[in-house]
Design brief:
212 residues; mainly beta; outer membrane lipoprotein receptor (LolB), chain A; 13-stranded mixed sheet
């Protein structure tokens, strides 16, 4: 679940104004959109490039620090960040994990969304040029204990189209976005989560205590 949460935090970055290179697009991207909705398809590949998991669903984002991912296939999982807490609900297991947002934002690439658009402070940014019709940029965390080795963003026109996150073991999580909507009206209420009755809650309770 930690991989999914970091991806979700990273995706709080918004789409962009037209720009030529990947780095220019990234900076425009960070300065522009405040809300976003899209469908997504996610592949998890091992170090040998073999697919080990395929997921599909929808996402909604609102800066700062609010998002909702609804995984529909193969297992129904809901991930919600309300600005203070990060909730992960496994529907099949009827289990909710809740953590403080601050703990997750301390991990890169989540630092990218900690309230500042100064991406160069936290990452080495590399323009990878054009490939497969996309303009690519790579983000390499400056901290040594990051959960990820690098993050690649592929831009198509004015939208981010693909994200690839490489972990410390060589595995890659690839996210492809479709039907993306920029700056749709989204209220904070859409990013609130209440554990369903009977669900087992593990981690920080909403009042700051421990549960589980």
């Amino acid at each position: 679940m930690r991989r999914l949460c970091l991806i979700a935090l990273l995706l709080l970055c918004p789409p962009l104004h037209a720009a030529s290179g990947g780095v220019a697009r990234l900076h425009a991207f960070l300065a522009d959109v405040k809300t976003l909705k899209a469908d997504f398809s996610q592949q998890v590949l091992d170090a040998n490039g073999k697919q080990v998991k395929q997921s599909d669903g929808t996402l909604a984002l609102k800066r700062p620090d609010r998002f909702r991912w609804d995984y529909a296939k193969p297992n129904e999982v809901i991930i919600v960040a309300d600005g203070k807490k990060l909730w992960v609900y496994d529907v099949q297991l009827q289990q909710v994990t809740v953590k403080s947002m601050s703990a997750n934002l301390a991990s890169s690439p989540a630092v990218l969304l900690a309230g500042s658009n100064d991406v160069d402070k936290n990452f080495t940014v590399v323009d990878l040029g054009e490939k497969d019709g996309l303009a690519w940029v790579q983000l390499i965390p400056r901290v040594k204990d990051s959960d990820f080795d690098s993050v690649k963003l592929g831009f198509k026109g004015e939208d981010v189209s693909v994200m690839e996150l490489k972990d410390n073991l060589g595995g890659v999580t690839r996210i492809e976005l479709d039907h993306l909507q920029r700056n749709p009206p989204l209220s904070d209420d859409e990013f609130k989560f209440t554990p369903p009755a009977g669900a087992d809650v593990i981690g920080d309770t909403p009042d700051g205590g421990q549960h589980g």
